[in-house]
Amino acid sequence: MGLAKLLVADDHPLFRAAVLHALREGICLGQTLEVDSVSALTQALDEHPDVDLVLLDLAMPGARGFSSLVWLRGERPDIPVIVISSNDHPRVIRRAQQFGAAGFIPKSAPVETIRTAVSAVMAGDTCFPAQAAARSERDALLAARLARLTPQQFRVLMSVADGLLNKQIAYELGLAENTVKVHVTAILKKLECNSRTQAALLVKALEPEGESGLPGEY
C-alpha cells in the first residue's frame, strides 16, 4: 500500500519522528509533513492540498479538545483523519469517531497497531479500538450543528469561545469588523444559540473530558 503524502500533527517532535519511523518500516511513504500547532496545520493544508492522510493529536497548541478534528473535517472532508492521543478513554474514542475521525490510535499502541490503522484507513476502512463507549446522541447532535458552519464561521466561533470581541476577531482573522458581525449572527442562528456565551459552551463541550454543554440540550 503506497501513501503519497502524510501529515503528522503533534507538538512532540520525538513522537512525530517515532511514528514516521514506524510507518516507513512497513508502508511505502511518499512525502511527509510535520506540524506542531493548529495554525501550522492550517498553513500546511493550504500549501499542500494533496495530503492523503492526517494523523492528528488532540492536544496541540491552538486546539480545544476535538476542535481541530471538527475544523479539519469541515475544511477538508476529503482527507481521512486518524486521531492519535494519550487519552484513550472509551468515551474519547467514541467521540473521535462521532466527530468524523476515520480511526483512533492510542499513543501507547505498539508499532504494528499504528501500521494496521494507517493501512486500513488508506484502504477506505475505519480503525478504532474495541473498547469505544456507546454512541452518544448528544455528541451526534453537537456534530450535526457544528457541521452547519462554514470553515470561516468555525474559525470565528473558536475566537468567540476565546472571549475575543468582534474587533479583536477581525484583527486576528484579517476580516472587516462588519464581516465578523455577520458571521457571528449566522453562527448563533445555525447553532441555535441565543448568545455568544451559549455558543462558547458548545465549544467547551468539545473538550475530551466534557460530558456536556448546556444541561439537556445542545
From TrEMBL:
Name the source organism: Stenotrophomonas humi
Pfam family example for this protein? Response_reg
Q: What is this protein called?
A: LuxR family transcriptional regulator
Write down the InterPro entries for this protein, in alphabetical order: CheY-like_superfamily, EvgA-like, NreC/VraR/RcsB-like_REC, Sig_transdc_resp-reg_C-effctor, Sig_transdc_resp-reg_receiver, Tscrpt_reg_LuxR_C
| UniProt KW keywords | DNA-binding, Phosphoprotein
SMART domains cross-referenced by the UniProt entry: HTH_LUXR, REC
Q: Which GO terms describe its biological process?
A: phosphorelay signal transduction system; regulation of DNA-templated transcription
Modification 4-aspartylphosphate, positions = 57
The residue ranges of the Response regulatory domain are 5-122
Query: What high-level taxonomic lineage is stated for the organism?
Result: Bacteria, Pseudomonadati, Pseudomonadota, Gammaproteobacteria, Lysobacterales
Q: Domain HTH luxR-type, which positions?
A: 142-207
Gene Ontology molecular function: any one: DNA binding
Q: Does the keyword Ribosomal protein apply?
A: no
Signal peptide range in chain numbering: none
